[in-house]
Amino acid sequence: MSVLVSTAYLPPVALFKTFKRYGQILVEAHETYTKQTYRNRCEILTANGPLALTIPVVRPNGNHTLIKDIRIDNSVKWSREHWRAIESAYRSSAYFELVSDYFTPYYTKEWKFLWDFNSSINNTIVDLLEVDVKFEETTKFEKSPENLMDYRNIFNPKKKDLISEEFEAKPYYQVFENKFGFTPNLSVLDLICNCGMESVLYL
C-alpha cells in the first residue's frame, strides 16, 4: 500500500523510516502551504541543543499558494547560515566528511522552488543510503483519500505527540548526547552524520 506524505526539508528520522518501510511514497503536490512544518524546516542537534533550520519562502498567491508553487526567498542568505550551522554541529561526527561531499552542492547552488529543492535532496539521501523507495507526486488534492495511508499530518514539529509508537525512535549515538541525552526524531541528516551507511540498518 502507498503512503501519502507532505514534502519535507531534510525529513525527521521517523518520516524516513516510513519511506523505507513502505517503499511506495506519494508526495502531496497540490496542498496549500502550511507554516511551521517540516515542509521548509528541519531540526539538528548543536552544542547548544536542538536547532530548527527554516528555509525562508515566498507565497506568490498568498494563503492559496500550492506547495509546488512556493518559492525560496533567496534575498535571505539562508543557505550559507544553514550550512554553517550543520558544519558546526556535525564536523566532529564520524561521517561528516561523507555528508559534506553529498550535501555541500545544495547550499552553494541557488534554488527557485522549495518543491524542487526538497525532492532533489531527498532523492540524494535515498541514493546515498541505497534505500529502495519510489517517490511519486499527487495529481490532485484529496482531503480524505481512499486506499492510501494518509500521513500528511502525522509528522509536525509542533505536534510531536502525534507520532505513534510505530515511529518511536530507538537511541543511536549522537555527538552531543553526553550533554543532552538522546534526542529523538531529529533530521535524518543527524542519523547519517553519526551512523553513516549503517543508517539504513537503523531505519
Task: Provide the helix percentage.
Answer: 25-40%
- The number of domains is 1
Largest sheet composition: 4 strands, parallel
What is the H-and-E element order? EHEEEEEHHHEEHHH
| SS strand fraction | 15-25%
| Topology, number of strands | 8
Shape descriptor: globular
Strands in their spatial order, largest beta sheet: 7-2-1-8
- What separation lies between the terminal Cα atoms? 19 Å
Average pLDDT reading:
91
CA gyration radius, whole angstroms: 16 Å
Uncertain stretches? none
Short synopsis of the structure:
This protein has helices spanning 13-22, 78-90, 96-103, 114-129, 177-180, 188-195, 199-202, and strands at 3-6, 24-28, 41-46, 49-54, 57-58, 71-72, 134-137, 149-150. By secondary structure, it is of the alpha/beta class.
Task: Describe what this molecule looks like in 3D.
This protein has one domain. It is 31% helix and 15% strand. The protein has helices at 13-22, 78-90, 96-103, 114-129, 177-180, 188-195, 199-202; strands spanning 3-6, 24-28, 41-46, 49-54, 57-58, 71-72, 134-137, 149-150. Strands 7-2-1-8 form a 4-stranded parallel sheet. A two-stranded antiparallel sheet has the order 3-4. The radius of gyration is 16 Å and the shape is globular.
Question: What's the structural blueprint in terms of helices and strands?
Answer:
Blueprint: E1 3-6, H1 13-22, E2 24-28, E3 41-46, E4 49-54, E5 57-58, E6 71-72, H2 78-90, H3 96-103, H4 114-129, E7 134-137, E8 149-150, H5 177-180, H6 188-195, H7 199-202
Parallel strand pairs: 1-2, 1-8, 2-7
Antiparallel strand pairs: 3-4, 5-6
